[in-house]
Specification:
The chain is α/β, with parallel strands linked by helices. It is built from 7 helices and 11 strands. 33% of the residues lie in helices and 13% in strands. Strand 3 and strand 4 form a beta hairpin. 22% of the residues are buried.
Length: 268
Amino acid sequence: MSLNTPVFLKEREEDNSKFEEIQQSQTTSIAAEDPLQNLCLASQEVLQKAQQNGRSRCLKCGGSRMFYCYTCYVPVENVPIEHIPCVKLPLEIDIIKHPNETDGKSTAVHAKLLAPEFVNIYTYPCIPEYEEKDHEVALVFPGPKSVSVKDISFHLQKRIQNVRGKNDDPDKPSIKRKKTEEQGLNDSKCEDTTLKKIVFIDSTWNQTNKIFTDERLQGLLQVELKTRKTCFWRHQKGKPDTFLSTIEAIYYFLSYVSFFISEEIVIQ
């Protein structure tokens, strides 16, 4: 028989609505005053010295760069890697980069530099396979079908329930699936919603449609950051200030995770 969405999930979603409004207004007002005040900032001395010395060689490709190599995703010779903070993230991040996006202007590289073990950058049309993992992966991108961050747990749980319902329906023929997938869906741990990976698109807003409409991304839960305004110095002309740079979107999403879903979603 098919399974209905648990009532407690709906009740929790409603109970969190007021909290979200209050929390977002507070965090938004704080960010407007000083968007960096909650960050633990490392010393910039190594960067200041590097700037005084000028461009340096990339130890991988030999290219001349300032601070870091935007093609190899590593600091240059006069910026010792041990002086660069290494950040541990609560989940993995995939960044799909448009082939026409200028490497030197991409802020996605900043995420890879600071969290190399958690961030992967792919150049379109190269996109990882998400088809059998759509219950544990979400795409951060605005649109009519997007949901708020606080509702991720509810919608991922619905996906698991829908899959189980289809498999338990006696009126429908059984679907042959991989043994590992079948074991995972039948495991009691599936009662927990596990968000393992977030996908971001790195592109100018005028170029995003080609990547966003790719069928390999269409099955993913779509999440939107609705209340944040960009602080990036290179703002895209003609676009609203809610259009964030890639590194801003990553930072704000992870900030929301700590507020809304750290207790509702199992982060692995």
